[in-house]
Automatic annotation (TrEMBL):
Residues 51-79 are annotated as: Disordered. It comes from Brevundimonas alba. Residues 51-69 have a biased composition (Low complexity). The keyword Signal applies. This is ABC-type glycerol-3-phosphate transport system substrate-binding protein. Keywords: Signal.
Length: 79
């Protein structure tokens, strides 16, 4: 009977150790996932800023092109 009780106690301790290991690994994985999400958010923000800058530059260029077209008389074909 003592052997059975010791075996149960040893099994319980082994499971507790595995559980702690699993908990530690889960925490490490969660931390890494959090860092990945934060990095992705930073990248997305930087890309959005770059897209906004590029859109503003393209809009300015289009406005300049329209302004130049308005100031340049159209050629009329010779009759």
């Amino acid at each position: 009977m003592r052997i059975a009780i010791l075996a149960v106690a040893a099994t319980a301790l082994a499971l507790a150790a595995c559980s702690q290991q699993t908990e530690d690994k889960a925490a490490t994985t969660a931390d890494a996932a959090g860092e990945t999400v934060a990095s992705a958010a930073d990248d997305t923000a930087a890309n959005a800023d770059a897209a906004a800058d590029n859109t503003a530059a393209a809009t300015n260029q289009a406005a300049e092109n329209v302004d130049a077209a308005v100031q340049t008389p159209a050629e009329t074909p010779a009759h």
